[in-house]
Structure formats: C-alpha cells, structure tokens
C-alpha cells in the first residue's frame, strides 16, 4: 500500500512538472524565474549539485543575478534615451503621461526581476502544496487534468509570442527600419512588458490550479450527495415472536462507504486551498497593484493619443503605424488586467459554489458522523467567505473593470479639456503676435 502511494505520488509529480515545464523555462529565459529553482528539491537534483560543487552553484546564482541586472539596466537606459531623444517634442500633458508610464513600467520590471530572487523559496513551497493537494484529491476519487493545464498555458505562451512579434514588426516599421531606434523602443516597451506578462502568467498558473482543485472538490461533493441516499448497507436483525418463532427483519445501519471521512478530507482540502490562495495573493499582491496602476496610466495615455491622432489633418504612413501600435498597447494592458482578474473570478465562483452543494445532501440520512462532517464543513465556509484582495487595496473581482472604465472616461475628459484649453491659448497667442507684427498695427 505504501509503495502504491509513493508510486502514485511520483506519477503525479511527473505530470505536474510536465505541465509546468514550458512555462517555467520561458520565464527563466527572461529572468522572471531564477535559473537554479528546483520545484521539488529531488534527490537527483541534490546529488547533481553535490557533484557540481557549491562554488559552481554560486557561479550560476551570480550569473543569474548579473543577467537580471543587465535586463533591468537595458530597460532603464533605453527609457532615458527614449525620453531625451523622442519625448522632448511632445505636448506637456502627453509628456507627463509618458513619464508616468516610464516610472511605473521600470518599477514593475525591477519588482519582477528582483522579487523572483527575493521570494525564490515560494516556488518550491507552492509546488509542494499543490502536489500534496493533488494527492489528497486523488485519494478521494478525482484527478487533476494536467493535460488541460499544459495545453491552456502553452497556447497562452504562443499567443504572447505572436502578439509581441507583431508589436516588434510594427515598432521596426515605425522607426524607419533603424536598428538602434528599434532596439531602444523595443527595450522600453516590448521587453518590459514581456517581463511583466510572464510575472502575471505565474500568478495565473497558480490560480488556475486552485480553480481546478475547487472544481474537483465540488464535483466530488455533488457525486456524494447523489449517491448517499441510494448507497446503504443492510444488516439482518433477529427478533423472537410471542410464540417462540424467530422473525428476521432487514434494517439499515450505516452507509456502505465512509462518506463522513471523504467529506472531512474534502473539507481539509478546501481549507488548504483557501490558505494557499491567501499566500499566493500575498506573494503577488505588490505586482498586481503595480500592474493595475501601470495599466491605468498607459490606457489613459493611449486613449488620449487616439484622440490627438484623430485631430491630425495631414495623415501619413507613420500616423497609421502609430495608431496600430496604440491599439496593440490598449489590447495588451487590457489583457494584463484580465490575466489578473479572470482567474480570480473563476476561483471565487467555484469557491462560492461549495456551500449550496452541501445543502444537496439529504437531511433524512441517519448517519451521525456524516451530519457532523457536513456541519463542520458549513461552519468552515462561513469563515472562508470574502473577496480576494491585493495588499488590501484592490478587490480582485470583475467589477474592477467597470470601475477602471469609469475612471478612464473621467480622466480622458479632463485631458481633452486641458488639451483644448492649451491649444486655444496657443492659437490666441499666435493671433496676437501676428496682429502685432502686421503693417497697420
């Protein structure tokens, strides 16, 4: 029995590693996951490290740190060059919005590149917690669909690659095929957003696992509620009649399966999922708040840029490419917000379904242990209720989108009014100057 459990655990571990392999490797290429991370601290890995020697491990860690510093320095240097070589000719409000984007964007890059090293212990902790929950779910009769997770996130990586490939092509054409201008612009916008998106992908990966676990718990509870009224074990009871004749009656005693124990296991798994969800939100909370702030600033800038582009009388190819680039960035920053909120929405929806499912159990079942387990589960759910938050500042629910849309509309109106006032002021100044310089003045 012990060997069988160990074998199943090893199989589940291999499935988990296969599902996370491509996402992990892609993140390591762009410095958003340390190179030396080992999810389960396997014996083979430890033996390999002993053979390499501690000094080689230090070399790997040092090279990884230098690589992260190099990426951050590349983005920061390109940002400074972009500001001094390109942004100086912009109007005041547009220039201020770009400065806000640069500050928040570089802050997010530093946060991801430094934070992944600072919180490297969480990689192994989260992997071990997910594996333990996977084993628990399997012992209750369900299995996590690792193939589904692998397929979804592989498609997500392909979509990210195609999107940023399109952005690079438009950026190259907009910079008149100048390599250095293209390198500067792509470092500021493309590279920084790749780092940001891959950091959020790790968050979405963990939350999608939690969503599937909640879904498995609810599916098992629904199955138990359906089978309990029809799944009885019967026992024969002998009674002696008045005439001394024995009568045999059949009476139900207990349930055929120990549903009380299974429900209690699911309750413990549900509690572990809630604790894991809180830990994940705490770990990524600062990144979520920073990304949401950056997305708001960039969306304000890009919608204002579209407004200014539509007021241009002479339209050329560069304006068309800039408009395409602007639309791509609106899609990107909207997608980053959705990459945060939609997995949270799925998790919250499945977690809230558990309570009503418990009421599907028949109240006529005469099983004290099962009724006690259901009561304990219900009481636990009362303490687990509540919205997910990021650093206690943002409620991670889909209503945040409507809040952002309202705020964006308000700020866009303010920007348009300010721009109109500045334009009219400049026009009045030019008219006065022309009148003053006319021959009849």
UniProtKB/TrEMBL annotation:
Protein keywords: Cell membrane, Membrane, Receptor, Transducer, Transmembrane, Transmembrane helix
Among Pfam families, the record links this protein to: 7tm_7 (PF08395)
| Entry GO CC | axon; dendrite; neuronal cell body; plasma membrane
Name the major location.
membrane
- Could you tell me where this protein is found in the cell? Cell membrane
**Could you confirm whether the keyword Lyase appears in this record?**
no
Q: Which InterPro entries match?
A: 7TM_chemorcpt
Q: Which residues cross the membrane?
A: 65-84, 96-118, 152-174, 194-214, 284-309, 321-342
- Which topology term describes how it sits in the membrane? Multi-pass membrane protein
Give the GO biological process terms. Answer: chemosensory behavior; male courtship behavior; sensory perception of taste; signal transduction
Q: Write out the similarity annotation.
A: Belongs to the insect chemoreceptor superfamily. Gustatory receptor (GR) family.
Protein role: Gustatory receptor which mediates acceptance or avoidance behavior, depending on its substrates.
What is this protein's name? Gustatory receptor
Q: Which organism is it from?
A: Anopheles atroparvus
- Read off the lineage from the record: Eukaryota, Metazoa, Ecdysozoa, Arthropoda, Hexapoda
């Amino acid at each position: 029995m012990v060997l069988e459990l160990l074998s199943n655990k090893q199989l589940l571990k291999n499935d988990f590693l296969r599902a996370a392999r491509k996402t992990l490797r892609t993140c390591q290429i762009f410095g958003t996951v340390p190179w030396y991370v080992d999810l389960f601290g396997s014996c083979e890995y430890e033996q390999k490290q002993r053979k390499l020697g501690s000094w080689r491990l230090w070399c790997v860690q040092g090279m990884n740190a230098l690589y992260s510093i190099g990426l951050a320095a590349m983005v920061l240097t390109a940002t400074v060059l972009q500001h001094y070589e390109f942004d100086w000719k912009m109007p005041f409000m547009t220039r201020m919005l770009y400065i806000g984007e640069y500050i928040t964007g570089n802050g997010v890059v530093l946060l991801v590149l430094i934070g992944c090293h600072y919180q490297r212990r969480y990689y192994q902790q989260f992997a071990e917690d997910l594996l333990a929950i996977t084993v628990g779910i399997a012992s209750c009769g369900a299995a996590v669909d690792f193939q589904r997770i692998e397929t979804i996130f592989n498609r997500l990586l392909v979509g990210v690659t195609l999107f940023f490939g399109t952005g690079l092509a438009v950026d190259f054409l907009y910079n008149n095929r100048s390599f250095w201008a293209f390198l500067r612009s792509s470092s500021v916008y493309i590279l920084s957003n790749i780092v940001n998106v891959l950091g959020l992908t790790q968050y979405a990966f963990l939350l999608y696992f939690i969503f599937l676990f909640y879904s498995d718990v609810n599916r098992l509870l629904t199955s138990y509620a359906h089978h309990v009224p029809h799944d009885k074990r019967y026992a024969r009871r002998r009674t002696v009649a008045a005439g001394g004749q024995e009568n045999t009656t059949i009476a139900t005693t207990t349930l055929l399966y120990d549903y009380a124990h299974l429900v209690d296991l699911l309750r413990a798994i549900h509690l572990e999922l809630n604790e894991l969800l809180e830990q994940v939100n705490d770990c990524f909370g600062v990144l979520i708040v920073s990304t949401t702030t950056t997305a708001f600033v960039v969306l304000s800038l890009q919608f204002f840029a579209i407004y200014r582009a539509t007021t241009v009388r002479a339209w050329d190819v560069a304006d068309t490419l800039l408009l395409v680039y602007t639309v791509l960035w609106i899609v990107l920053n909207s997608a980053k917000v959705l990459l945060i909120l939609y997995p949270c929405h799925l998790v919250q929806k499945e977690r809230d379904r558990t309570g009503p499912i418990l009421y599907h159990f028949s109240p006529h079942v005469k099983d004290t242990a099962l009724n006690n387990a259901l009561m304990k589960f219900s009481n636990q759910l009362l303490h687990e209720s509540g919205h997910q938050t990021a650093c206690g500042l943002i409620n991670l629910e889909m209503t945040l989108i409507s809040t952002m849309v309202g705020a964006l509309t308000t700020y866009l109106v303010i920007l348009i009014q300010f721009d109109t006032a500045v334009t009219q002021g400049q026009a009045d100044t030019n008219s006065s100057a022309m009148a003053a310089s006319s021959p009849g003045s």
